[in-house]
TrEMBL record:
Entries under NCBIfam families matching the protein: FxLYD_dom
PROSITE patterns, A to Z: PROKAR_LIPOPROTEIN (PS51257), TAT (PS51318)
Provenance organism: Haloarchaeobius amylolyticus
InterPro entries: FxLYD_dom (IPR047676), TAT_signal (IPR006311)
Domain of life where this protein originates: Archaea
Name of the protein this chain belongs to: FxLYD domain-containing protein
């Protein structure tokens, strides 16, 4: 008699799990929320590697302390977030390799959290690392100028790709 009870309990749990998954999928059904990030390609050009010095140990320590290397689990692609510009820039001092640009909230509501995700590659197309920048409370119609600190030497970075994600209010 315990076997049928166990089987029906499993069916209820399976049905409940399927229902919750379907409900969540229905909530994410519009093109404004959810899904995988869409990455844009970026090029690294105009960098004269002979004129670029590597970070010292102290500068690398400072850069590593400030570089974001873990993505947020609470962000998703959002239609109102637009990546307006981006470029690979070598800064002096501890910053070194960076990816800088502008994100705009083109929507009519505040975005609670915004994250820029980048992946950098060498000449062979091997991914060297993933780096991030984030901010909170991007109001409707506002822009955010971001700076992603990349811990790779400018001489080994050949290309990158970039995406923007957010958490709606």
């Amino acid at each position: 008699m315990s076997r049928p009870e166990s089987t029906s309990r499993r069916r209820v749990l399976a049905t409940l799990g399927t229902g919750i998954a379907a409900a969540a999928a229905g909530c994410l059904g519009s093109n404004s929320l959810g899904g995988q990030p869409i990455y844009e390609e970026g090029t690294v050009s105009g960098i004269n590697a002979s004129n670029v010095s590597n970070r010292s140990a102290a500068q690398m320590s400072a850069a590593a302390a400030l570089a974001q290397q873990q993505p947020s689990d609470s962000v998703t692609p959002l239609d109102p977030l637009s990546l307006r510009s981006h470029e690979f820039v070598v800064e002096s001092g501890y910053l070194g390799s960076t990816i800088q640009g502008t994100v705009e909230n083109t929507g009519s509501n505040r975005i609670q959290a915004v994250e820029v995700r980048t992946r950098v590659y060498d000449d062979d197309g091997t991914m060297l690392g993933r780096y991030f920048a984030s901010t909170g409370d991007l109001n409707a119609g506002s822009t955010w100028e971001f700076q992603v600190i990349v811990l790779e030497s400018p001489s080994v970075v050949a290309s990158y790709d970039i995406a923007v994600l957010g958490t709606p209010s």
